[in-house]
Give the backbone structure.
Amino acid sequence: MISIIAIDGPTASGKGTVAQLVAKVLGFHYLDSGALYRIVGLASLHQQIDLSHHDQLGQMTRRLKIHFDQQRVFLEENDVSEAIRTEEMGQRASAVGAIPQVRQALVELQKSFLALPGLVADGRDMGTVIFPQAQLKVFLTASAHIRAQRRYKQLIAKGISANIDILTQDLLDRDQRDTQRSTAPLIQSEDAYLLDTSDLSIDQAVQKILKWYALVVQQ
Ligand code: DC
């Protein structure tokens, strides 16, 4: 049996960083499902497909040639690792993520990441839809205030100017869209452990997940 740790949660909760570190410690593969939705957002922009054309977006998504190599992500031959990380692409990813045809088109690709010795998958519906069989499910969150501050610091560190009020509003809009959509909404499932990282360091969050994982594999 291949081990799976599913980590779901809202934007800027620190999921990505924590999930990657957990995968590294355990020697597991890592799936950043948000990157896939971001790529769909980017590709739809390049191909000038209106977000109201759901069937066309679904077909486009099925044709995308996406691959990950080390920490980089490629669309066809192009390294899009930076291009997909902008706020604009986060919002667009959230918009395409609400389209059932797009979600359906990404199911098999996400499942194909499952490989020995195990997988850490992060996103919005990893534990609820894509890998419901996961041994450990974590719902990782932090207060909106803390998340906006973290995002602000990240942007400033990259030399990108940012406004904390606009960031907070963008983040709340995205939370609203991701939790209220009808297909695979962001939700804490009953069998997921809640991890609020508002007052935790990255290392503390990683240790907590490793401890839970050790407990569930013992059972
Ligand atoms: O995790 P992220 O911020 O990179 O995700 C960007 C957007 O993609 C997020 O706001 C909603 C969408 N998404 C999704 O709908 N389902 C996932 N499993 C991952 C991301």
Q: What stands out?
A: The radius of gyration is 17 Å. The longest strand covers residues 3-8.
